[in-house]
Amino acid sequence: MSTVFIALQANEDTRPIIEAIEIDNPHAVVNREPAMVKIDAPNRLVIRKDTIEEQLGRSFDLQELQINLITLSGNVDEDEDTLTLTWNS
Questions:
Q1: Ramachandran quadrant class, 43 (left: phi over 0; alpha: psi -120 to 50; beta: rest)
Q2: What share of the chain is helix, strand, coil (3-state, %, to 5)?
């Protein structure tokens, strides 16, 4: 099993995004540091636009993630509605 992750800056803009990721990925482990939040998941992590929009209370373009993105690990599959990180076996 391989771990994928995404790390975002820790600020008010990312709080609802992180909450949305937690909702969609109950298996993920969220590590909060003073300046960043790193979210690890075994094999797969899915970030859904709809869930982020529910948490934000407004429309959201997944490209907005890049404003607060520090780094990520895994193969990226992205469309207008989801960003998925996976490790192919």
A1: left
A2: 30, 40, 30
- Structural contact between residues 73 and 41, judged by C-beta atoms closer than 8 angstroms: no
Average pLDDT rounded to a whole number, residues 4-12: 97
pLDDT in tens, 31-45: 999 999 999 999 999
Average pLDDT over residues 58-69: 96
- Asked whether the beta carbons of 78 and 84 are under 8 A apart, the reply is yes
CB 4 within 8 A of CB 39: no
Question: Which distant-in-sequence residues (6+ apart) come within 8 Å of 27 by Cβ?
Answer: 41, 42
Say what the pTM is: 0.92
Q: How far apart are CA 55 and CA 48, in angstroms?
A: 11
